[in-house]
Amino acid sequence: MSQDEKSSWCVEVFFDGDCPLCCREINMLRRLDRRERIQFTDIAVEKFDPTAYGKSMVELMDEIHGRLPDGKWIIGVEVFRQLYSAVGLSPLVRLTRLPVISHALDFGYRVFAKHRLRLTGRCTPETCKIG
Q1: In angstroms, rounded to a whole number, what is the distance separating the alpha carbons of residues 28 and 17?
Q2: What is the pLDDT of residue 19?
Q3: Confidence (pLDDT) at 129
Q4: Do the beta carbons of residue 41 and residue 27 sit within 8 Å?
Q5: Nearest C-alpha neighbor of 10 from the set 76, 95, 97, 81
Q6: How far is CA 58 from CA 21, 27, 32, 38, 65, in A?
Q7: What's the pTM?
Q8: What pLDDT, in 10s, does the model give residues 34-81?
Q9: What is the CATH number of domain 3-119?
Q10: Spatial CA neighbour of 43 closest among 60, 58, 59, 27
Q11: For residue 22, how many C-alpha atoms fall within 13 Å in the half-sphere facing its CB?
Q12: Rounded to whole angstroms, how far apart are CA atoms 124 and 9?
């Protein structure tokens, strides 16, 4: 990646393009990203190689991941905070950092992430093990 590419975006999001709920969120963010501050990376495309990023597909599927221009990885709700900040919704992001709201969002996201495949009708014996 060139220096120009690095400086043009604020956050890269690694999303599951096969997830209908995820795609709704990503499509909304694409519409709001008029200044092209987000780099969108679909981990569901055949050519995607998680090892090129030092990650496994399981890691990337278990929880949303993002990467900042300096290479720092972020996960979970913090990814959404960075995405919403990038599209100009910083006042909303500030509210999500309040202690009670922050804890509720973290808890809610963990529950969603754990059950995402089931909620979107994409369970297989390998992805939704009982136990």
Answers
A1: 14
A2: 87
A3: 59
A4: no
A5: 81
A6: 19, 23, 29, 23, 12
A7: 0.83
A8: 999 999 999 999 999 999 999 999 999 989 999 999 999 999 999 999
A9: 3.40.30
A10: 60
A11: 27
A12: 36
pLDDT for 8: 85
* Structural tokens at position 12: 């890269």
Three-state DSSP class for residue 126: coil
pLDDT digits 0-9 by tens, 39-51: 999 999 999 999 9
> What are the sequence ranges of the domains in the chain?
3-119
Residues 6 or more apart in contact with residue 63 via CB below 8 angstroms: 75, 76, 113
Other C-beta atoms closer than 10 Å to the C-beta of 93 total: 15
Q: Are 15 and 43 within 8 A, CB to CB?
A: yes
